[in-house]
Amino acid sequence: MQNKKLLLAGVFIAAFFLNNVSAQSKKSSGIAAVKGNSYLNVGVGIGSYGLAGTGGFPFTASYEYGVAKNISAGVGLGYVKRKFATDDKYTYLIFEARGSYHFNELLQLANPKLDVYAGAGLVYRRYSYKYTVLFPGDEGQAAYTTDYKTSGGNVDAELHAGGRYLFNEHIGAYAEVGYGISPLQLGLTLVF
Questions:
Q1: Where does the signal sequence lie (predicted)?
Q2: How is domain 2-191 classified at the CATH fold level?
């Protein structure tokens, strides 16, 4: 519940900020400009890699800045927490550096509200796992439990492809597939 409140607060702050920035630049051809624009995606993941159990959707966010005509670079993060049948809990957090190529000009997509992109990144995946083991007591002794914790992390390459559709100059929706926190991500995109 607290994650939902933080996400909602972030969206309201970003929307307030967007009211005070200049309009998004467009090329005269009608193709959306990339260079100089900032893209903020905030959403949820559908599915998660190798995690069963119950819990909410993975949360995801990414920020990219247009560094060249059709290229953006930035960072991303993702978070999911799952609970299994007993008191076992698994937390998964990713941090990524990412870059994207925007295909609108190459594909001659003259709709400035549409942005099609694909890219790659380097991801640090951090996990922690907490579980409880029930030990039967010796003869005449009561059973007892012991909590165990483990954690670790690794670095991986990441690929992604997606698209965003802008409802106005600053707000839209996005969908992205890839090997980040989940196979499919859906959410809100802000351009400023």
A1: 1-23
A2: Porin (2.40.160)
